[in-house]
Write a structure and sequence with these properties.
124 residues, mainly beta, Lipocalin, 10-stranded antiparallel beta sheet
Length: 124
């Protein structure tokens, strides 16, 4: 079941005329549900707490799909991995996220289709 929204809808306005719509779920978590960018493109976010998944889908101002990111989320609500797809659901790359004992992002690893390292970023 996708995130059930209730109680609160907030519109965030930014100087560049972009905005985000927030929703509060039944567990009081506030999450972004839609972001509209200055160029008119729109990113829609869907969360499935039971499956530990989140999906961000971006479309042009005319509704044409640009791509999506399918995230796996850990029990603490942090991203474990994200698979990035381009238009027509074409696989682009996968990112793995690693956290330190305090829960801070420690490492991001980008993998290609064969799971070979393409890029690794370490945070200190």
């Amino acid at each position: 079941m996708l995130l059930r929204c209730c109680l609160l809808l907030v519109l965030f306005a930014h100087a560049a005329r972009a905005f985000s719509l927030l929703a509060q779920s039944s567990d009081d978590t506030i999450r972004i549900t839609v972001t509209v960018n200055a160029d008119g493109s729109r990113t829609t976010y869907q969360y499935d707490n039971a499956k530990h998944e989140a999906i961000a889908t971006t479309a042009d101002s005319d509704g044409k799909a640009r791509g999506k990111v399918a995230y796996k989320v850990d029990n603490n609500g942090r991203f474990e991995s994200g698979i990035v797809y381009g238009p027509d659901d074409k696989f682009l790359f996968k990112t793995l996220y690693k956290y330190d004992a305090a829960g801070r992002l420690e490492e991001e690893t980008r993998l290609d289709k064969g799971d070979s390292d393409v890029n690794r970023t370490l945070y200190k």
